[in-house]
Each structure stands twice: as C-alpha cells, then as structure tokens.
Structure to design on (86 residues):
C-alpha cells in the first residue's frame, strides 16, 4: 500500500511546530490498522522515521508525531484530533 504521512516536528526550545509530508510504500500494509502498526513500531526505534531532516534546522530537542495519513490518491484516511492546521 502506498500512503503519505504528514509529520509534525515540534522544537521545544523554539516553541515551534513545522510540518512535512513523506511518502511511504510498504507491500505488507493492506489496511489503515496496518499503517498504524507500521508507524507506531517505527516510532519506537530511533532513526526509523526522520522527518526532522525535511524541515528547517533548529537547535535543541524536538518531538515527531504523525498527524495526517493520506492514501495514494490523496484521500485523508486519518487525522489527529488535535491537528487543526489546514
């Protein structure tokens, strides 16, 4: 399944949130539940996902979270309830 993840990169020292879209293509993923498993497992392993390299560099600590998941046609499959940006 091909899908796109919108990542939120929050830099704590700058009180700043930046966003980037990263495309993924995983053969073993067939459902949205599979996408969640893939993302959650990847977040547990350092350097599996690195959206911070796709946004403007800032010093200090940061956190990454997925906020929207789109299918290969751009249809929104998931949106974090706290993500308000359009």
């Amino acid at each position: 399944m091909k899908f796109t993840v919108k990542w939120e990169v929050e830099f704590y020292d700058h009180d700043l949130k930046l966003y980037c879209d990263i495309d993924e293509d995983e053969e073993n993923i067939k459902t949205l539940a599979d996408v969640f498993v893939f993302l959650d497992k990847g977040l547990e392993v350092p350097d599996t996902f690195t959206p911070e390299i796709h946004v403007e560099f800032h010093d200090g600590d940061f956190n990454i979270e997925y906020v929207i998941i789109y299918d290969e046609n751009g249809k929104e499959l998931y949106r974090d309830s706290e993500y308000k940006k359009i």
